[in-house]
Design goal:
Length: 194
């Protein structure tokens, strides 16, 4: 995530084990988990390497899928979200607001943002949408592409609108707020390809 290991670079299990002072087994297990998330690639007879950076085509496809699923998930969540889920959403938004003021690293913001979106997908009551969005690992891949503090503070404003719509249980407004948020996120991150 920090790009200490550059995209496409080979990952030496031996070197990581020595560097971290552990055996190769936990390193292999960790790399397998990262492979499942698409952050690491395993090539037969060669080993592991860091995944390549997302290209423009993949980036556009990712956002097309998000625009199909996330606004619908927000619409459903507006009527189905539980008090406990809503309280967790507010807590995550508060933690991201601190992050947006530069007090927390952007990687922490990306993790919290991922949890925020995951919770809305979960609150939609549609397991397939939730699983699909979770398997995209969108936030980790976007963090690897590009990060800056302004993106965090702008996203926080958009999250606040989404929370207001969910609290009002206004399905139309929640759907529109999520659509605007995903579209603006696309605009923010697409500058990477300019």
């Amino acid at each position: 995530m920090s790009q200490k290991i550059l995209p496409g670079s080979r990952i030496s299990i031996d070197n990581l084990a020595r560097e971290m002072g552990v055996s190769q087994t936990p390193i292999r297990e960790a790399l397998s988990r990262l492979e499942a998330q698409g952050l690491v690639v395993k090539t037969h007879l060669i080993g592991f390497s860091a995944a390549s950076q997302m290209d423009r085509t993949r980036f556009d496809q990712l956002y097309e899928l998000r625009l199909l699923l996330e606004p619908f998930a927000a619409r459903k969540a507006a009527t189905l979200i539980t008090t406990e889920q809503f309280d967790t959403l507010r807590r995550l938004a508060a933690e991201m607001a601190v992050s947006g003021q530069g007090r927390v690293s952007y990687s922490d913001f990306a993790r919290l943002d991922g949890q925020f979106h995951d919770l809305i997908a979960l609150a939609s009551g549609n397991d397939l949408i939730h699983e699909t969005l979770a398997n995209l690992h969108t936030h980790m891949h976007l963090f690897r592409l590009f990060h800056h503090q302004q993106a965090a503070s702008t996203a926080n404003t958009e999250h606040a609108e989404l929370i207001d719509a969910l609290e009002a249980r206004d399905a139309d407004r929640a759907e529109q707020a999520m659509r605007v948020h995903v579209e603006r996120s696309y605009d923010r991150f697409s500058t990477f390809f300019s």
